[in-house]
Amino acid sequence: MENGETYRLLYAALKEHDSDVVAIDDDLLHDRNDARKPKNETDYPRVFVRDTSVWVSDEQGKEEKMVSDGSGTSPFDKDRIYISPDEQYAVVWQYIPEQEHLMYLVESSPVDQLQPKMKAIQYLKPGDRVRIYRPRLFNLTERKEVSTDDTLFQNPWDLVDIGWNRSGSEYRFRFNERGHQCLRVIGVGVDGHVRALVEESSSTFIDYSSKLYSHLTEDEDEMIWASERDGWNHLYLYDLVKGCLKSQITKGKWLVKSVERVDEKSRQIWFKCYGIVEGQDPYYAQLARINFDGSGLTVLTDGDGTHSWKWSPDNRYLIDSWSRVDCPPRTVLRTGDTGTKIMVLEESQLDRLIDKNWNAVERFSTTGRDEATMIYGIIIRPASFDTGKKYPILEELYAGPHSYYTPKGFSGLSGLRRWADLGYIVVRLDGMGTNWRSKAFHDVCYKNLQDAGLPDRIKWIKEAAATRPWMDIDRIGVHGRSAGGQSVGAALIHHGDFYKTGAADCGCHDNRKDKIWWNE
User: Fold this and answer.
1) Rounded Cα–Cα distance for residues 431 and 399 (Å)
2) 171 CB burial (10 A radius; 0-12, 13-18, 19+)
3) Which run of H or E residues covers position 442?
4) Among 45, 124, 191, 351, who pairs with 128 as Cys (CB 3.0-4.6 Å)?
């Protein structure tokens, strides 16, 4: 990185020929697979794409065409060539290009000219044709293609390379069906047999953008896999040799948020989870450990709040810090294997804030529209709050189904407090359809973005106001931006009897016009 340039890395290989991949974003629940050393251009046999054909050359420089049925509308990808470890087989990906859907932008102050400049960028939208890949298998000894059946990976949203197993007997990749109702890990044997090693399905949608996780063990015979098949996001162990489920690792009415690390020698997993401590806000993060076989579940953090932690370099210790919106951080040192508290490192105090008439954020929860599911939110009062007055209510609304949005840890909340100090009671909560609760909670958003959890929000605000006479239920406004702006529009159109006014900033009110991945 030079000249002050800034980069955001999700993954990095520590060394050029190292097999370890490190997730730089440690809160990303996603794949962790071994990095492969790329074949050198001088290694033989060398497989390459020339024009519309796939070629192979040997050490003597003899070139031979293996297939020539590519075309301009269905080329082979020269960057997706995967040779087996024993160099007897290769997989080359062929594809049908995505359609062109250009969006035009005006650069107001380009560095190379005085006048504005128009730019065109590729910007696929819902329903557009995406790039469709098709892996093809070749026998490098016989210099010919091995026929394979693509029934298990038709109509893909995307395919992701996993790589050859160590013996070179099977090539593996992940298939995500368009519509996101089917997800498979697929194995292609060198004899051309195609099988599903892992299969996931849903009648609504698979949350691939937030919850997709797989960990391939070093011997490549097992895979740890995340799934919501039992109604909660949990970890499962698969036998890739037999292509079957071995066991469910985690289970219960709580969920795995992300995997911290996997120790294959001890066959243990450390992971971040939500809702594992009964009686606490289900969005509070905790750290836990479990064995591959599902035994030995241990919650390593302790304290009624949301936790964050940092590991010592040898993973023997961790610094555990927890807080709530109404409780400042408390930090302790713990052992990394059992979570035993060694010592208190820091306990923050609120005395100086209280002396300045600081108002703590209030937590409030009640049941949602079904009279059973708890909905959690916060209430913020003005700095000059007077219990004898009635204040208009302002909801800051964002209900995008990819996450949740109510603050859980202690912070200044300057944006929300700025509105409160203008004379509003500010509320923020997460209704049904947002992420990181049960699968049923999340499924409310399916083909139903206009819902935005609004029935839950209205009930929550009414019940909060019923015991707080200073909340003026007859004066309620709502504001939000982007998908939040869309939800503001829905609030005023469908619930105008409750929300009296609203402000939508850059609302994406027609999902057909927005980016493809979020809206599909």
Assistant:
1) 8
2) buried
3) helix 439-443
4) 124
Strands 285-291, 298-299: pairing kind: antiparallel
Torsion from C-alpha of 74, 80, 81, 85, nearest 10 degrees: -150
Q: Are 425 and 381 in contact (CB under 8 A)?
A: yes
* 270-272-273 Cα angle (round to 5): 120
- Kindly report the length of the chain: 520
Angle, helices 454-466 vs 483-494, to 10°: value is 70
Other C-beta atoms lying within 10 Å of the C-beta of residue 69 = 12
Per-residue pLDDT of the chain (520 residues; tens, 9 = 90+): 333 434 444 444 444 444 444 444 444 454 544 445 445 555 667 999 998 899 999 888 889 999 888 788 999 999 999 999 999 999 999 999 999 999 999 999 999 999 999 999 999 999 999 999 999 999 999 999 999 999 999 999 999 999 999 999 999 999 999 999 999 999 999 999 999 999 999 999 999 999 999 999 999 999 999 999 999 999 999 999 999 999 999 999 999 999 999 999 999 999 999 999 999 999 999 999 999 999 999 999 999 999 999 999 999 999 999 999 999 999 999 999 999 999 999 999 888 888 877 889 999 999 999 999 999 999 999 999 999 999 999 999 999 999 999 999 999 899 999 999 999 999 999 999 999 999 999 999 999 999 999 999 999 999 999 999 999 999 999 999 999 999 999 999 999 999 999 999 999 999 999 999 999 9
Strand extents, DSSP E, 140-281? 144-146, 156-164, 170-177, 182-189, 194-201, 214-216, 222-227, 234-239, 244-248, 255-263, 268-274
463 Ramachandran zone, left/alpha/beta (phi>0; psi -120 to 50): alpha
For 421, residues 6+ apart whose C-beta sits below 8 A from its C-beta are 382, 383, 384
| Pairwise CA distance, residues 57 & 42, whole Å | 10
Dist CA 236 CA 227 (whole Å): 7
Instruction: Of 23, 95, 458, 15, give the one whose Cα is nearest residue 260.
Output: 23
Q: What is the distance between the alpha carbons of residues 167 and 188, in angstroms, rounded to a whole number?
A: 13
Closest CA to 477 of 505, 496, 452, 494: 496
**Amino acid at the residue 264:** E
